[in-house]
């Protein structure tokens, strides 16, 4: 073969490979967020690496982030930075619902996710015309599933403006924008009047609050008397041993890689809820058998992680993705290992469910 023909063939194969990785394989979970669309929220291209460094130096020592008041006050701003860094990677590699769910035999991840979300609507006894609050709504995967399942209206709040725009765009696309509204704000001090919601829920979001009392107190305030609140909490279980180095490593790894100011213990949740005035109607770790493991979705994707990592590196090299994306992706990969370890050892659950009620006659 002539040299020129060989060069053209090699170039053709190269272009085809890049196309395959970026356009075909790159759209990992949900078509619509492709690898070439990876931005870093509202962070400008040249600032991504700096923001990642700032994030990492803040959350490197998880316990310290929540224990001093000055540091706890900074948590929402760093959580916002975290979601600027990860939102597109989450959507690209996981989908529009940023949470786990128990695996369901013979059903896809997407179906298992929907079932886990619809359970919230059923626990809340949500009805057409009800006004529900989604505390920490992400890009609105759960909000759309719950509004569609129960025909209720949902208002979501997230600290991250980029997520607000993504969620609104998804709501419009799904034809649910008349029933799903998204507000940018801090759930530790919400821009809603007292007693303005029939029900409320939070899915894997309140773990970002330095003090659970503060967010539960706000939910209590905005709920109508008699209103129900369901929360899926990230907690350590009774199997966690604070003197076991392997346990410490897994839990610290989860906290660092998920912008958490220190995980709470499972047995703290109900007492905090009671402290702010709620009645505790139900409390259950939804990850316990007969539920099938939630972490298999993380484990089974090793080949996908390798492929994604390559895609991210190629896109950074081609300057399509900003510098720093590869580091963020690597951090998430490590976080996935810690989460898997937490699940396998049973020391951690992301789905400790509590069903709470604001008393019908306000006692507070
Ligand atoms: C509730 C929270 C987020 C939970 C999960 C949605 C995310 C936790 C870890 C994330 C991921 C880890 C590995 C990534 C992988 C390397 C990449 O190629 C594709 C995306 C991941 C799978 C990513 C997806 C979302 C998570 C599973 C926290 C923040 C409170
Ligand atoms: C892991 S995501 C879960 C999102 C959504 N519940 C879901 O399951 O798809 C956590 C969410 O909590 C939000 N959040 C964290 N701290 C917040 C705060 N102080 N105020 C408002 N939202 C916050 C984040 O912006 C993000 O949307």
Topology:
Blueprint: H1 3-25, H2 48-59, H3 62-67, H4 69-93, H5 109-123, E1 131-135, H6 141-150, E2 153-158, H7 161-173, E3 180-184, E4 197-203, H8 212-222, E5 223-236, H9 245-257, E6 264-265, H10 269-275, E7 279-285, H11 296-299, H12 302-317, H13 325-345, E8 348-357
Parallel strand pairs: 1-2, 1-4, 2-3, 4-5, 5-6
Antiparallel strand pairs: 5-8, 7-8
Quick overview of this protein structure:
With 364 residues, the protein is α/β, with parallel strands linked by helices. It is built from 13 helices and eight strands.
Write a structural description.
This protein has helices spanning 3-25, 48-59, 62-67, 69-93, 109-123, 141-150, 161-173, 212-222, 245-257, 269-275, 296-299, 302-317, 325-345; strands spanning 131-135, 153-158, 180-184, 197-203, 223-236, 264-265, 279-285, 348-357. It has one domain (36-363): Vaccinia Virus protein VP39 (Rossmann fold, 3-Layer(aba) Sandwich). The model has no long low-confidence stretch (mean pLDDT 90). Strands 1, 2, 3, 4, 5, 6, 7 and 8 form an 8-stranded mixed beta sheet that branches. The protein is globular. It has 13 helices and 8 strands. It starts with a helix and ends in a 7-residue tail after the last strand. With 364 residues, the protein is α/β, with parallel strands linked by helices. The structure holds the ligand C=C(CC[C@@H](C)[C@H]1CC[C@H]2C3=CC[C@H]4[C@H](C)[C@@H](O)CC[C@]4(C)[C@H]3CC[C@]12C)C(C)C and S-adenosylmethionine. S-adenosylmethionine (SAM) binds at residues 76, 79, 83, 97-99, 136-138, 141-142, 157-160, 163, 186-188, 203-205, 208. Keywords: Lipid biosynthesis, Lipid metabolism, Membrane, Methyltransferase, S-adenosyl-L-methionine, Steroid biosynthesis, Steroid metabolism, Sterol biosynthesis, Sterol metabolism, Transferase, Transmembrane, Transmembrane helix. The chain crosses the membrane at residues 6-30. Residues 82-359 form the SAM-dependent methyltransferase Erg6/SMT-type domain. GO terms for molecular function: 24-methylenesterol C-methyltransferase activity. Its EC number is 2.1.1.-.
